[in-house]
Design a protein that fits this description.
By secondary structure, the chain is of the alpha/beta class. The protein contains 13 helices and 20 strands.
Length: 419
């Protein structure tokens, strides 16, 4: 008999034919994983949560949100935290008494199958840093399993099934999903306002991260941003071995002598406890990626991977999809696609380190200048950068209708916030 698992990802419903042994491990909508579970069954769970191997695993792909997509031959529906409780497909699944489980809980049970799960958390930079750590572990022949929130060229998808006890995951804080994970180690990159529909304020975000790191064991490692006060304060909430990364000698790991080429790609020297450890050259742009990669270096060092090996991995890493992803040339402009979730990511970390006379970046969320998320300075910065982008649209002679739309948007934002 064939069993089906439905992976509910935003507006895409993926139906996966699966082995009965997977479904038999479900009780009341919960996957019950144990360290003794065979690698074969563990790998099938990984493939289910990844849901990207279209040729071998996806039997039916349905777009749209319709209750008729849910049929009584489905044995489990997995949905993301972005799916609301009144979603027609989720409602239908419950009407049919089909077990449902949120993806964070589903992934959490998979983490219990590994002895050494490593989570990369933080408001900004999770996907890029997870991809860097994954690349380094693969370079070192550690054969990790990987789950990341973007397409990574190295693994030709967003997941990899390895044969070791290492599981590298992107740990998202939304709806406290990462509290479900059983981890040995973690990186926390930063703590900032985001997902305020759930958290309401920065204090609740801080508390959420405190709970997250409190779950780490004494033999684990916690890599923290020494420059971010809220992040650094997490050292008081964890039993794990604390390793700090930052811009000053007060940090365990720091960077010095940072230079950028014409594409904004940095090279820098790595120091551990003020001792020179080697140099790193990146093929991804921005000062923020200097920090992201240094966190990767610090974590890898704790796991016995030296700087030279990490450097070899990072020189090959050209970025994850939609993270300052180079798309090509347009009328002499280099065009990048960047899926930043907050205006601060765009204005504070990306534009300053590249030559804005040579490239044009467009970001989905730079236009969402929400008052509850930003102070007046950040709002002003966001609007001014929008003005810079509008100027570039004229310079590179992009379509007049698009330029008109951007001009109207700019004027409406100026009127809303400063009129």
């Amino acid at each position: 008999m064939a069993y089906k698992i439905c992976i509910k990802i935003s507006d895409v419903l993926t139906t996966i034919q699966e082995d009965p042994s997977i479904v038999e491990s479900i009780t009341n909508g919960r996957i019950k994983g144990t360290p003794e579970m065979s690698k074969m069954r563990r790998n099938k769970l990984m493939q289910a949560v990844g849901a990207t191997d279209i040729v071998n695993y996806v039997k039916e792909l349905v777009f749209g949100q319709y209750n008729e997509n849910i049929t009584d031959d489905i044995d489990l529906v997995v949905y993301t935290a972005a799916i609301k409780q009144d979603n027609p497909e989720l409602v239908k699944a419950r009407e049919l008494n089909i077990p449902t489980v949120e993806r964070g809980e589903f992934l959490g049970e998979i983490t219990k199958l590994f002895k050494d799960t490593i989570g990369i958390a933080g408001t900004h930079g999770k996907t890029s840093t997870t991809s860097m750590v994954a690349s380094a572990f693969v370079e070192a022949d550690y054969d990790p399993s990987i789950q990341v929130g973007a397409v990574l060229k190295l693994i030709n998808g967003n997941y990899r099934v390895g044969n070791s006890d290492y599981f590298i995951i992107e740990a998202c804080e939304y709806c406290d999903s990462y509290h479900n994970f059983k981890q040995r180690s973690a990186i926390v990159l930063n703590i900032d306002n985001d997902h305020l529909d759930y958290f309401k304020n920065i204090d609740n975000i801080q508390k959420s991260f405190e709970t997250y790191v409190s779950h780490l064991p004494e033999d684990g490692y916690l890599i923290l941003n020494r420059d971010d006060e809220r992040c650094y304060n997490l050292r008081h909430s964890s039993k794990a071995n604390i390793i700090t990364v930052g811009s000053t000698d007060e940090s365990d790991w720091t960077y010095k002598n940072v230079t950028f080429d014409d594409d904004g790609f940095p090279t820098y020297d790595v120091y551990k406890s003020n001792e020179f450890m080697g140099s790193i050259t990146l093929k991804v742009a921005g000062m923020h990626n200097v920090f992201n990669s240094l966190c990767c270096v610090a974590l890898c060092d704790a796991y016995g991977i030296n700087v030279e090996t990490v450097a070899k991995a990072l020189i090959k890493f050209t970025g994850a999809s939609r993270r300052l992803e180079y798309k090509g040339m347009l009328n002499g402009a280099k065009v990048y696609d960047d899926y930043g979730m907050t205006t601060s990511e765009w204005t504070k970390t990306k534009l300053p380190e590249v030559n804005t006379d040579q490239w044009l970046g467009l970001n989905d969320y730079i236009f969402e200048l929400e008052e509850e998320k930003m102070d007046s300075g950040t709002k002003y910065s966001g609007v001014i950068n929008l003005k810079k982008i509008f100027g570039l649209l004229e310079k590179f002679e992009l379509p007049i209708d698009f330029r008109k739309e951007m001009q109207e948007l700019y004027e409406s934002l100026m009127d809303k916030y400063f009129g």
